[in-house]
Amino acid sequence: MKKKKIKTVINKQKIFIFISFIFLLVCVLWYGGRAIYFYLDSRKTIENEDELLAQVIIDKNYGTDNFKKINGDSYFYNDAKSNYLTYSNILWRIIKVTKDNEIVLISENPLTVLAYGDDKNLKSSYITKWLNDKNTDDSGILEKNLNNVDNYLMKTETCTDNVKNVENISCKKTNNDNYLSLLSVMDYINTGTDESFINNGNYTYLANTNNKNKVWYINEDGKLNTTDGTDIYGVKAVITIKPTVSLVSGDGTEGSPYKIEDKNSYFASYVKLGEDIYRVYDAKDNVLKLSLNNYLTVDNEPLEYIYSNDDYYHNDTIYGSLAYYLNNRYLSSLSYQDSVLSNKYPNIIYGDDSKFDYANINVNTIDTKVYMLGIGDVMLNDLDNYFLATGTNDTDASVYLKLKTGTVDMIDVTSDANVVPCISIDKSILKQGSGTLDDPYRME
User: Fold this and answer.
1) Higher model confidence: residue 31 or residue 190?
2) Which letter does DSSP use for residue 156 in this model?
3) Are residues 293 and 149 in the same domain?
4) Quick one: which of 34, 86, 88, 440 could link to 147 by a disulfide (CB 3.0–4.6 Å)?
5) Is 12 exposed, middle or buried (0-12, 13-18, 19+ CB in 10 A)?
6) Helix, strand, coil % (nearest 5) of the chain?
7) Phi/psi at 186 (5° precision)
8) Mind listing the pLDDT tens digit for each residue in 345-403?
9) Which among 28, 78, 29, 74 is positioned nearest to 53, based on CA atoms?
10) Burial (0-12, 13-18, 19+ Cβ within 10 Å), 78
């Protein structure tokens, strides 16, 4: 009996030890697991902080050629090749990272062509209204088409000093009323002027005036010059990315630009219909306005056609006019013609005598299915010598011709030129694709 008691005690001790071991093991696993979790979470936070775009740019380019510090801001200059960024499906170039880690960019190409306006003041210029005025309902205003502006952008500070001599520039006056602005003369000089990456053969308006109340611009050779503001030149938008924005992907090269968005927007994306590639130049509500990403071709050759026999008016009922051709012969040739919607398009005069303000463009619109870009529409191609559906004035039978250099010419309506058709579709018909050129949005 005594031996059995000892055996029972020993068995109880074994059970107690086993239970204690299990308890300790569970504690180790639980608290150890929690410790590992919080450690990895803290590392993740650190890694995310390390991936803030501004810091990535500075770390990648510090001490390299074409990156220098001026008055506390870090500028890319001359032939910089590591300052590309995509935002809202538009390619941008990073101008500088400010001392506060704000990232200032300029669009690689002009996004429209406009006159500066009679009032030689950046704040009240036609261009500022076009860039930022969200209260109008027309198709050319840029800000309303950009993706999640409040998440990615902050108001852009622009030096607006009167620039009398480019050898002696100051920044005593600034404007930061809007998200989108124009490049200042100072920033252009700090990036290398005609040696700058910003100089890519386009006429481009700048933000400043001179002592004679003329507006500075960049010509096709990258030289600085002035105009009275009535000339129609390219508009390269300048934006500022918040210092808190993180890098999603890319290394800043042209082939792999920095990317900050997890999800693309429809604006400026590519759409494939049939065998045709279009670009979205306006994404309002559920309707997308598309411009062909190339010239209209017949038998693989660009079609040159006369605009009309009379004037700038886009009348698709007059036989022999370009409007008639586009809405009859061309439209009927499209395999996706049933998906093309009738829509309102601006058909206006843009000239000195009209004192035209783009914010009031809706006073002259026409309903049609196939149209063309006009003055003030977002222009996402770098094609040359094609018709714009905009008249030059009330008396001359002429329209504008878009040139590759970011400006326009005037052409008689009875002359022929290249054609870039525009159509509208309901975005719900797009079932596949991601909107890139390699993987455009498309129907089933």
Assistant:
1) 190
2) P
3) no
4) 88
5) exposed
6) 25, 30, 45
7) -60, -45
8) 988 888 754 444 554 444 578 999 999 999 989 999 999 999 999 998 877 799 999 99
9) 74
10) middle
What's the total number of domains in the chain? 3
Among residues 309, 322, 315, 327, the alpha carbon closest in space to that of 386 is found at 322
Q: Is the C-alpha dihedral spanning 371, 404, 296, 272 positive or negative?
A: negative
Q: In the predicted model, what is the mean pLDDT of the chain?
A: 88
The residue type found at 382 is D
User: pTM value?
Assistant: 0.86
Instruction: For residue 213, give the nearest of 196, 195, 227 by alpha carbon.
Output: 227
CB proximity list for 68: less than 8 A, separation 6 or greater: 74, 75, 77
Do residues 274 and 384 both lie within one domain? yes
Residue 264: inside a domain, yes or no?
A: no
**Helix segments in 153-269, DSSP class H:** 185-190
The amino acid at residue 245 is: V
400, 232 Cβ separation under 8 angstroms = yes
Q: Any bridge partners for residue 354, and if so which?
A: none
Note the pLDDT tens digit of each residue in 57-107: 999 999 999 999 999 999 999 999 999 999 999 999 999 999 999 999 999
List the structure tokens of 299: 């038998």
Cα separation of 68 and 206, whole Å? 22
Three-state SS for 382? coil
234 shares a domain with 87? yes
Report the candidate in 242, 221, 224, 259 with the shortest Cα–Cα distance to residue 92.
259
The DSSP symbol for 437 reads S
> In a 3-state reduction of DSSP, which class is residue 404?
coil
Burial of residue 353, with CB atoms counted within 10 A of its CB: 0-12 exposed, 13-18 middle, 19 or more buried:
exposed
Alpha-carbon distance of 408 to 404, in angstroms, equals: 9
Q: Do 201 and 313 fall into the same domain?
A: no
Range of the domain at 68: 53-259
* Contacts for 38 with CB less than 8 Å, ≥ 6 apart: none
Give tens-digit pLDDT for 131-172: 987 655 544 478 889 999 999 999 999 999 999 989 889 899
Residue 209 pLDDT > 50: yes
Within a domain: 156: yes
Are residues 62 and 119 both part of a single domain? yes
